[in-house]
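chain below, 158 aa
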Amino acid sequence: MKIAGLDIGTTGCKLTVFDENGNQLGKAYRDYPVRRAVSGHETDISTMMKSVYTVIGEMAARFPDIAGIGVTSFGETFVMTNEAGEPLHNAMLYTDPRGAEECAELSEKLGAAHIAEVTGLAPHEMYSISKMMWIKKHRPEVYAAARRIHLSLAGSLI
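prediction:
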């Protein structure tokens, strides 16, 4: 029996295959471009997913008896999709500075202590809610067309 670990990171993904004793048998890696500018940090979800499918296909061809795959990915990166599941914008990375103003507005309106009490987390611009608010304000056509929001992309789009 073989198991694999899929790591979907900010700039690339890798799939590593292990035997039942934990010995590494093989690894595949693909990178993808990330656009970082003062105005935003994002990646093309289609390119990312193509890389994910490529590493899975490569390792599955070499090791057809993989019994399971554990998946990990960067958190607080999201994309909104339409009813058909098609991305409506590039995935906004957790490092994307857009949403800082919205985070401050949310904290002012609800109170940082109340947000922390409800969520267990202090408000921060890296969290997706602020970026979703940014999209609603600055890209209303995307927000209006959105039917699903995929957070931490690995589990939701594979």
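Strands lie at 2-8, 12-19, 24-31, 35-37, 40-43, 66-73, 78-81, 91-92, 148-151. The helical segments are 45-62, 100-110, 112-119, 128-138, 140-145, 154-157.
thats it, cya
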